[in-house]
Specification:
It holds the Pfam family ELFV_dehydrog. This is Glutamate dehydrogenase. One of its GO terms (molecular function) is nucleotide binding. By secondary structure, this protein is an alpha/beta fold. It has 16 helices and twelve strands. Strands 9-8-7-6-10-11-12 form a seven-stranded mixed sheet, with helices on both faces. Strands 1-2-4-3-5 form a five-stranded mixed sheet. Helix 12 links the parallel strand 11 and strand 12. Helix 7 packs across helix 8. The structure holds NADPH dihydro-nicotinamide-adenine-dinucleotide phosphate and 2-oxoglutaric acid (AKG).
Length: about 425
């Protein structure tokens, strides 16, 4: 396990890319162009703390590729954020936008900070100062941030306001994931979870068609790791819109298990009570749900597992004990490459992260279009457009997978690389 952790996340991501590049016969010159990040910005910036002291924090913004359009990707606040991690996440954003066919490149940002240690006003000062520092490479048509781990609509509001203050006018297009009251889109908060559920349902349909899953929805069991924006909204859409049985959920404090499956009403209540970073286990076990650890959740005897928390949740150590036959990756990079190989060799069907969780950036694109035009859509239209984009991307990747007889992750890379490579060749390299 220690051995795996020392490996660079960016290098791991490039290994996935290289597998696809070699199968599709990508020109080695183009490979060079497509792998390297375009810009990497590191900022050390001061924040005045409530007790009058000043602390210096480190933050990053990496723009990986901007060939198809403006760079796009979230900003995370977490104590483990490093440049290497942000580079990997920016790299995946490029392929995410390309696979779901929206006109964006890839970027990501992060600040190395444990946000639970900050007061509300310290968080505001940190957010505003960080955004101001990275503003030198941002713009409504250049690079558009969004939420990620431990950032939300409130943080996006501060970002938008900071940028708008310096421009002298309200700039809706500078970030997505804003609250609806200040120009966000209906349906953005739920979009990543809803999109994962679309992929999950289509994967079940596909496996049934191929005779690889012979169960009715009522008989299918699901476990979800992570109960933040992504995991909780997946839990909600799944329990509201299908008859499958969601039997386990978790956050960093641990998991809750219910043999007959959580109802949508229970998920809603748990979402309400874990608002403002309150923990599942510490706050909510009055109903007598059985408590399990995160490790136990991953190894449950379920049909479907969706890791929706952090990267490297499933490693060489625990992958041998995973019993799920379908994994739908909600988090970015939840499987190490070694775990991926082990699970594929056990015939586990894996819907890869940058396809499964592309619903977030897709509705971010819809939000950006609405903001740039100052014209806002209805929820039904957002959901319909998301469904169309996601199912079309899902079956594009399935076709590629069947054509090359490969796994779904490699197929998603081939589809995405082909789009960005074609655009790169058309635009040319000058001088
Ligand atoms: N937000 C978005 O639109 C998108 C997010 N993603 C990816 O999805 C993943 C989750 O993001 P998001 O939901 O936004 O983040 P949040 O911060 O909203 O939630 C993260 C969740 O993961 C839990 N968690 C953190 N560490 C662990 C751990 N070690 N073990 C178990 N659970 C843990 C957190 O628990 P606690 O709250 O108790 O800390 C929380 O429930 C990330 O990989 C992110 O990059 C991908 C696409 C879009
Ligand atoms: O909504 C966005 O722009 C990007 C969200 C994100 O960071 C991700 O998909 O990983």
């Amino acid at each position: 396990m220690q051995e795996e952790k020392r490996v660079s996340m960016f290098d791991n991501a490039v290994k996935q890319f290289d597998r696809a590049a070699s199968i599709m016969g990508l020109d080695p010159n183009l490979r060079e162009v497509l792998v390297k990040p375009k810009r990497e910005l590191i900022v050390n910036f001061p924040v005045r703390m409530d007790d009058g002291t000043t602390k210096v924090f480190t933050g990053y913004r990496v723009q990986h590729n901007m060939t198809l359009g403006p760079a796009k990707g979230g900003i995370r606040y977490h104590q483990n954020v490093t440049l290497d991690e942000v580079k990997a996440l920016a790299f995946w954003m490029t392929w995410k936008s390309a696979v779901v066919n929206i006109p964006y490149g890839g970027a990501k940002g992060g600040v190395t900070v444990e946000p639970s240690q900050l007061s509300f006003s310290e968080l505001e000062r940190l957010s505003r100062r960080f955004f101001y520092e990275i503003q030198v490479i941002l713009g409504e048509e250049i690079d558009i941030p969004a939420p990620d781990v431990n950032t939300d609509g409130q943080v996006m509001s501060w970002y938008m306001d900071t940028y708008s203050m310096s421009k002298g006018h309200t700039s809706l297009g500078i970030v997505t994931g804003k609250p609806v009251e200040i120009g966000g889109s209906v349906g953005r908060t739920e979009a990543t979870g809803r999109g994962i559920n679309i992929c999950l349902q289509e994967a079940v349909n596909y496996l049934r068609d191929k005779g690889k899953l012979n169960k009715k929805d009522e008989e299918i069991t699901v476990a979800i790791q992570g109960f933040g924006n992504v995991g909780s909204n997946l839990a909600l859409t799944l329990t509201e819109e299908s008859k499958m049985r969601l039997i386990a959920i978790s956050d960093v404090s641990g998991g809750l298990y219910k043999e007959h499956g959580f109802t949508a009403a229970e998920i809603r209540a748990l979402m309400e009570r874990t608002k403002n970073r309150k923990k599942l286990l510490l706050e909510v076990n009055e109903e007598g749900y059985k408590e399990i650890s995160n490790e136990e959740l991953l190894m449950l005897n379920v049909d479907i597992l969706s890791p929706c928390a952090m990267e490297n949740a499933i490693t060489i150590d625990n992958s041998k004990d995973i019993q799920a036959k379908l994994i739908v990756e909600g988090a970015n990079g939840p499987l190490t490459p070694e775990a991926d190989e082990i699970l594929l060799s056990k015939n586990v069907f894996i819907v890869p992260d940058f396809l499964a969780n592309s619903g977030g950036v897709t509705v971010s694109y819809f939000e950006w279009l609405q903001g740039m035009q100052w014209d806002f859509w209805e929820l039904e239209d957002v959901r319909k457009a998301l469904h169309k984009k996601m199912t079309s991307a899902f079956y594009d990747v399935i076709k590629t997978m069947e054509k090359y007889e490969i796994d779904m992750r490699t197929a998603a890379y081939i589809k995405a690389i082909d789009r960005v490579a074609t655009a790169t060749k058309l635009r040319g390299i000058y001088p």
